[in-house]
Structure formats: C-alpha cells, structure tokens
Write the structure tokens for this entry.
Amino acid sequence: MKYQIHDIIFDTQEKALFHNGESVLLEAKSYHLLLAFIHSNEPVLSRDKLIELAWPQQVVSDGAVNKAISKLRSHLEQLSPDVEFIVTKPKFGYQFCAPVKILSEPNNTLGSATLKPSIRPQNRWVIIVISAILLVSLFFLYIDSTGQSMVEKTKKIEFNQFRFTALDGVETKLSSSKNGQVLFINTDVNGQASLYLRVNKDIPKVLPINLTDVRDIRLAPNGQVIGVVSQNRESCFIEQISLVSFNKKTLLDCSQFSDVKIAWHYDMQRLFIQARTNNAMPYQIYQFKIATQVLEQISLPQKHAALNGDFRLSAHPTQPRLAFARYLESDRSEIHVLNTHTREKLATYPVPNVVGALAWDAENDVLFFTVEKTLLQIDTQSGSEHVIKQLSYPVESITSTFSPNGKVLLATQYHPSSRIKRYDLNTQKSQTMLNNAALNRLPRQTVNQSLLFLSDMMGTHDLWQLRGEELYRYPLPFEFGFRRFQIDNQKEHVLFEQQGALFELNLLTNEVNKLITAEHKAYVANYSQDDQSVIYSSQKSGQWQLWLFNKITLTHTQLTQYGGYSGYQYQDGLIFSKRNQSGLWRLFEGEETLLIKDFSNINWLNFQLIKDKVYFYRKGSGIWCYNLTTEETEKVMASNQHFINQFHVNSAQTAILFAELKPIQGDVQGFVIHDML
C-alpha cells in the first residue's frame, strides 16, 4: 500500500518515507504509529487510544509514547520541514493534521504475476537458521521489553495532598534544604513582598532581608545560607547571605547578564547559573566555582539555533546531577541531565510542551516537573514517566524536602489574569475594555474600535476579537499560542510567525495563507507602508538581519548588513532595532544612524512607527514617543508595577491599549511522597 501524506510518499511494504529523491526507513514503532494515525477516523487520538492501536496488548508508559511521537514527527519534518504533521493537544493527545491520500492498493488477485528472487538450495538452510535465530531473539526481546514496561508501570509513587501555607497573596520562588527548611517569597495583594522561612511544622517566619531588586533567591542544601540575585538597570550581583548573622558576601558580579537564576551544587562549592547576555539571546547554563572564581559555560554550544535556550535548572541536593530544560518550539522541549563532575550528558527526555518548573527528589534519582497545570515525574534510572496530579492552577515553582511526615513535594500555584485597558492621550485617563479571569495579552485595535487580543479563557492561547460587547474566537487549524502578530494598515489581515514560516490570517474570511516557508527562518515580521511587502528578521544568512519579501513578485531581498531584528519601512529606508545590541537605528542610502541609544531590544514585541513618530517602552518608566522630524523624546504614558510591556497605539495616536496584571492569590500545596513498589 502507498499513501501520499502531504508531499511525502509512505510505502507500507518498504516501511519507508520518500520525498524528492530522499528516503527515511521507519523503525517499527514509527511505522505502526503512522498507520494508527492514517487508519483512525477520530480527529484527535488520546495516548490511551494510540497505545491501543500501535502497542496492542502491551503495557507502555507515557514517556514511551512521547518518544515515539517525537521520533515520527522528526522523520516527517526531516523530509518536509515546512509542514506541521502532528499537533500536540495538551492534556489529551495528538492530532495528525496533514492530508492523506491512497495512491495504490496491494495487488492480491490470483492472476497477477509477482517476480520473486530465486533462492539457491544451498542457501535455504542458512536463511532458515538465521530466521529462527531472529524469531527467538525477537521473542525474548518482547518478553524483556514487556517485563520492563510492567516494572516501570508498577514503580509508582503515591502522593497525599495537603496545604502547606495559607498566607494572603501569592507565594513564589520555592527552595528547600536537606533538613526540612523551606524558603519562599510572599507577595500580598498590595504588592508588598516578604521573605519567609518555615522549619518543619513551625509557623513561617519573616526574614529581615530587603527584597528590592531581588530577581532570584535560593536556600543552600545545608540550610545555613541563601544565594540571592540582586539586579537593576545599573548592576547585578550574586550574593551569599548568612541565616545566622544576615551578613552579605558578594560572590559574582553578573552585570554582563540579564534574567539570572541560580542553583546550589550539593557540596556548596559551586553555583549553577541560568542567564543570557541580553533579553534577545537564548538562556545558557554556566558553572561558577566559588573558591577559584571561575565562570564557565556548560550548555547550549554555538551550533544551536539562537532561538533555543536552556532554562529551569535544578541541581540534585545529594548527588552530582544537574537537570535543565531546553526550549525547542512553543509545544516542544527537552529535559537534559548532566553529571556535574564530568559534564557528561546522562539522559535526555522529550517533553511535548514547555517545562514550567523543575526539581529533583530530595534523595532519589527522580525528577519532578510541570507542564502548565500538570505535575509529572521521571524516574531517571528507568526512564519511566508518570502524571502525578492535575492541579487547578499553573505551577510557578516546586521543591522536594523532608518533614516530620516524611518526604514531601511542594508546589506554588496560581493563575495570573490580566485586564486590557485604554489610556486616552488627551485626558490622560484609563478605562477598562476587557476584564475577566483569563490571561489577556497583546492588545491590538482593528476597525470600528474593536479589540484583537490573545487569551487563554478557553484553556489554550487563542486569537480573540471583542466586537462591542461580543467576544469571537478565530477558528485556526492550529493553536495560535503566545506569539507576536501585526495587523495591516487596512485592518483586514493579521501577520504572524510559526516555526520559521510566516502566515497571514484574513480577518473577514478566516482564511489562513502561508506567505513564507520555514526554510527562510522568519521571525519578527511587519507590513510595509503599502501592505504589498513584509519586512521580517531572519538568521538564514548566519546572523540576524532584516529582509524584504515582496508579496507580488515573491522575491526576498536582504535589507541590513550589520544586524536587524524588528523594522519598519520609513521614507526610502528603515527604522529598526537589532537583536544583540540596544538602540533604535535608521538605515538610509546604505548608511546606519543611531537615533536612540537608550532603546532596549525588549521593544521588538511592541514598538510602533506611526507617520513620523516612534512609540517604545522603557522598563520601569513607561511608554515614550520619539519624533523623527524634531528628534525630541517625551514620555506619553507612565507605567505601574502591574504593567506587562504589551501595548498598542491606535492609528489616530489618540489612545494606547495596554495589558495590566490583576492582583493574584495562590498557596503552597504539599504532597507527602510514599515510595511504592
């Protein structure tokens, strides 16, 4: 049987995929999994259904299914990288979304003549013996794999849930020591943050430590000191604070980094640091040896794409183990485990989503991690993966420690929500346009004052429109996700990127059109002044540059030579920012001019060019306007602590739409861990 899957030929007899002279041989699991997708009439297949179809009468862990899906997806995308074949449906299963067509039926008629290779008599016994050996080997392999799967399935951990704290506000930044101390930050409804330490069943005590500028904080394994990352616009320091005297000791000047997070090595002789050189670069993991003051990068070599990043680091409290997550796509990541003495990679675990939090078991080789509201575990010895609990809210941080009741897993959980407001530039007053219990982001104004925005009100990040008092969700063939988008000048189309390809959504017909294939590695995209072209950033030349795609001639032209990330057409040139360098630039007749030095590259998400004015954001200050004619800069809207740097100035320049976080509540939930066999 032969099938055509989009532009790939699947030959069931050859057990192979063919495309433009290339071929991929499928291993058994990929082969059976692909057949299960093709033969099923259901649009979305759950994991249980996939196991029933592709692993009949076998006991299979969720981790095995995830690995098989990842392998099959890799085979298909190797031949046709521009196509999304398998879409992960969080908390349910997978959808095979590529079109499938039968090309040929197997020929089983009696009158058909089939040519078979002749076998010499002297070779028949050799073939028979080899076949017998293979059958016996396969039988014992099946018995072994089945037994192993049964062991993995029965090696479970039982959890009894309890509430660990009930303070007003929300708890974040959980960490713990080996002797049962738990450290966390509580932020009350007024935004006041305090540092708490709880020992066993005692009432949590407030520690006399000022949390101003504190970006991360971590209790050491011995429970005697804490590591603190203090960072503002001028400086960054990693400090060690004694829990006896509360004296500070500076360990490292981290001013070359942004978004710094830390984890203690089990012997407290080293710190592991998650950081990036600026907010447009990927996160990397570093090792800092305290005695010698040596800082070394230990993850994400240069060969990896710039959009990847290593984050969510966790060091084992008693063993030389470091785990971290690697971002691959918006719906795909990996967990990597290293030996901290040798830096040898011990294991890699695929995760069909982005890892939210990560922590080691207090004593065993077990990793706990979260995907949105789901709490999971991986036994790193067997590779088995299990879902622990479906929680009511997303998880911010987790930690494992000991208590009088035994070993416990702690998790901070809360659900952030935001309102969308409109700020009148004339009256300087704000009014709420959208207020619900969801996380609403990236507001944009369309025709007739209607509002276009992203929201998770239905459980997934979708594109919504508010028309008067009526809400409308755009039915797309894939989850929109949290991604930047732009509306054209006629307010009829939306431009956005997905996995390196550029798409255009017609707001009137709901049709989605692919403008640029993934081979161009497009990312930040803006319409030209006449909407006939698209200016997009790409690293296809080896570094981030701006390119022009003409929608009429279908041609691509490189615009910048010395870097470019987000840009708009202006007169006969460009107004643009760079990925690895702060500043707003103008390109005219081949020459670059720096217009604004204090222009953070965080503005790639929002900055706008309207006629002769550039609107941009300055962290901790607000929204500013730069006049290209007068070269003057003025603040047009101040920001507060709830402002989340997502705004849009309407085309008439009379109002600003922006997203604002609402006060949140959350608690630390505890799970008593009982190891079961």
